[in-house]
Amino acid sequence: MNGILTFLQNILSEPAFLMGLIAFIGLVALKTPGHKVLTGTLGPVLGYLMLAAGAGVIQANLGPLARLIEEGFGITGVVPNNEAVTSVAQQILGVETMSILIVGLVLNLLFARFTRFKYIFLTGHHSFFMACLLSAVLGAIGFKGVTLVFVGGFFLGAWSAISPAIGQRYTLKVTDGDEIAMGHFGSLGYYLSAWIGEKVGKDSRSTEELEISEKWSFLRNTTISTGIVMVAFYLVGVVACLVRNPQAVQELAGGKNPFIFAVISGLTFAVGVSIVYSGVRMILADLIPAFQGIATKIIPNAVPAVDCAVFFPYAPTAVIIGFAFSFLGGLIGMFILGAIGGVLIIPGMVPHFFCGATAGIYGNATGGRKGAVIGSFVNGLFLAFLPATLLPVLGQLGFANTTFGDFDFGIFGILLGRVGESVGSVGIYVVAAVLAIVLILPSILTKSKEALNNVTEEE
């Protein structure tokens, strides 16, 4: 039984397989010729593998940068990392997590078919992380066995359908009406950034319209500008670390000159970003046309909810601005936590890059440059305070040295943890009932069969 669960979890937590499966079903539903089914299925799979390879390059180069900052500036504390806390949790909650994942994905499809929340969540690894969080928090409250699996699976399936809908009107602005949605559990931070952009960014021009003189025109090349920014980050870290702990620099550089190491690492990071962009283009080229088969034949009006990195090409300059100001917000949040005696949450480079960049994109879509800067900065503050508040909830299960990094994990974990501590399992059922009402109510209030909020302002 465990072997079957592991096999299913390996498939369902792998977005490349999920995207390929969805594309295959859609193309078959459209009665596409066999050779086009093959190419249309492999396109999204290869595109996501390319995206994942680029993300792997990015993460591999962010790790040393985080170490340089910690050693160079003498910072010690907790670094939020989804992969780390999930790997720890799997040692004691492996079967529960896998079971919640499967139930959640099935319920997401059922909610998409029978409610107006027509969003199919395709970012499998984030579904896996959320399943892990739910198994940990609900387990700490006292849920066990089948009850734990079905309550956790309901929360996962419900939020997978609801979270893309909450900010779909912002997503349509980001994509200029493309039929995709946000399928990433940092979504509330992105929508908050977009809302802030609406409030502060009136008449602010887009980040993508930055006026650059001819001699600086090379900065319009996203790969080059990203490389320059990251090289600067690395050089600052290397200089600071050489002053405080030269041995750490030598270890990270692996025998290379530290400054050469900084330049190569920064430029390699930029290559990773370029690979991500190429993968995204492959995904969108094949997935969206194939998804029409799902949307017309199987789950009418369905909308694919995809990874946050898919949105990077829509505003490449906002990606860099969002990362920089989210990281700045994380630093200030860390200092505030230190001043009030809280746990130091060291800004994790991975969440601040991916979530901060996406917050910048959403802030830019509604409020231009001001929206990108302020929205991503506020996102960075939350990426400090939410993990710090979530830490005690996870600490009950022995995860005291690590915590989840993204916005939705923090909100969901804190909400369920605090409700469970205060009123026990009854409170959890009340939260589940509220989500059930949210799922059902739009279908009662209107006869429309369209996906909720999937309408452009012009319409």
TrEMBL record:
Check the record and name the Pfam families matching this protein: EIIC-GAT
- The transmembrane residues are 12-30, 37-58, 92-112, 119-141, 147-166, 224-247, 259-280, 371-394, 426-445
Specify the superkingdom.
Bacteria
GO cellular component, alphabetical, reads: plasma membrane
**GO BP annotation list:** phosphoenolpyruvate-dependent sugar phosphotransferase system
- Record membrane topology: Multi-pass membrane protein
Q: Which UniProt keywords apply?
A: Cell membrane, Membrane, Phosphotransferase system, Sugar transport, Transmembrane, Transmembrane helix, Transport
Compartments reported by the entry: Cell membrane
What family name appears in the similarity comment?
Belongs to the UlaA family.
Q: Summarize subunit and interaction data from the UniProt record for this chain.
A: Homodimer.
The task this protein performs is described as: The phosphoenolpyruvate-dependent sugar phosphotransferase system (sugar PTS), a major carbohydrate active transport system, catalyzes the phosphorylation of incoming sugar substrates concomitantly with their translocation across the cell membrane. The enzyme II UlaABC PTS system is involved in ascorbate transport.
The name this protein carries in UniProt is: Ascorbate-specific PTS system EIIC component
Q: What is the lineage of its organism?
A: Bacteria, Bacillati, Bacillota, Bacilli, Lactobacillales
